[in-house]
What does this fold into?
Amino acid sequence: AQRVTQPEKLLSVFKGAPVELKCNYSYSGSPELFWYVQYSRQRLQLLLRHISRESIKGFTADLNKGETSFHLKKPFAQEEDSAMYYCALGRGSTLGRLYFGRGTQLTVWP
Amino acid sequence: GAVVSQHPSRVICKSGTSVKIECRSLDFQATTMFWYRQFPKQSLMLMATSNEGSKATYEQGVEKDKFLINHASLTLSTLTVTSAHPEDSSFYICSAPASTEAFFGQGTRLTVV
It folds into this structure.
């Protein structure tokens, strides 16, 4: 069965500190993984997808199939990074059919 | 990016009544849309895949007779919660894929009293 685990419900760091949001997955097929972000009072939006291997807003995430992980990292957190972050697993070949982790609320203190 | 709009944003209904939630893709066509449900402080749970011109595909454990989905056009999918009960109170979110990503609506807060 597919499963996405985000062990931290809450994460707080100070501005300028490194931040890592953890995500582990369980999936028998070839995984397609995403990070979505939801800023206060806004809708969910895509932050990163593993196949693009890009850096968005200073965030990166590397798929580690051996550890079945897709952790989100940023070397220097900013206050505007405070948001809810969801790790999501693509289900099947249909784009947009997603299995979400429970989310991690990141707070960056000034 | 593409825009997905849900209506209404909030709705309160009485137990036993039905309520319809609309999901529109404003600037693109979507043959497939998805409906999610989110309980307070919990994750989004996929309920069903809405397919334009054909029946919706429901996830395991989701009552198809309770949550009626209609996808009559390439820009509109509707979710009707029938005979609503207080336990149906939740945040319902739709999404639609465009290009290489899924775009989400702003969500609908349903409260059944």
Q: What stands out?
A: The mean pLDDT of chain A is 92. The interface with chain B takes residues 43-46, 49, 86, 91, 94-103 of chain A (CB under 8 Å). The first strand of chain A starts at residue 3 and ends at 5.
